[in-house]
Amino acid sequence: MAGFAVFTRRRSEAAQQTQGGELPEAVRQMLPLRFEAVGEALASGGDVTSACSVVGGDVARDGAGLGEALSGLRATYRLVRGGDPGFDAVEALSVAWSEATLEYLHDLSCEDPLTGLTSLAHVRTRLSEVYRESELTDVSVQNSHALVVVGLRTRGREAVVEHHFTRALRLCQVAEAIRAVFAGGQTIGRLGQNRAVALVSRTGDLGMSVATLAEYLDDLGLGAEDVRVWIEGLPASAESASRLLDELAR
């Protein structure tokens, strides 16, 4: 019991030391791995939920389980504040952990189970293959292929309250429309929460096909205020194409 009393007293003293707005180095050294950002936010009065979101994703990618992540959050709060985390902090960390874990699973399966769209990692791999084929055939990828992108954006209050399942349902409809127009086995993937992309051959009727796709999407009544369809040209190198995908996914 004496050892527990000493630990409790030290934890209480550490919490009192953070009231000045800056996280003392002694307290930082006691924090669980990856939780420094949460400790700093707690000490300075910063955006704790944002810090929890970042840390939740980081610990998930490190391979930590949700229970371990929540234990780290509680330990951080007790060290810095002397109490337990509130609901907002727990929710932010848990959601970020879940999303990072799902992203990892999607990359493994190459397909999003909700929408049927392939993962960004799979699109990137297929695009790299196209560039390697181009080196063998001496046909420029800029002339042989292009990306057809569909973006959904809901403005105003609906964008705030819209559930992720609703967005996934819309993307599922978008995927079916793309497959109906481009039925030649093209790679069709997901770019973030609100975009889908198709890697297609740059043929003479590509513009007409995209116009047909736009008409299909209009007929779906997706509910989004802004549905945009466009052709994205590919750059000369595979490295630049990979960066382009990252930009489109933001």
Describe, in plain words, how this protein is organized in 3D:
There is one protein chain. The longest helix has 23 residues, at 87-109. Helix 5 packs antiparallel against helix 6 (87-109). By secondary structure, the chain is α+β, with helices and mostly antiparallel strands. It is elongated and about 65 Å long. It has helices spanning 2-17, 25-30, 36-44, 48-61, 66-80, 87-109, 120-137, 141-144, 157-161, 164-181, 206-220, 238-249, and strands at 145-153, 187-191, 195-201, 226-233. The chain has 2 domains: 2-107, no CATH class; 120-249, Reverse transcriptase/Diguanylate cyclase domain (Alpha-Beta Plaits), CATH 3.30.70. The termini are far apart. It is built from 12 helices and 4 strands; from the N terminus they run H-H-H-H-H-H-H-H-E-H-H-E-E-H-E-H. Mean pLDDT is 83; it is low at 1-18 and 156-161. Strands 2-3-1-4 form a 4-stranded antiparallel beta sheet, sandwiched between helices.
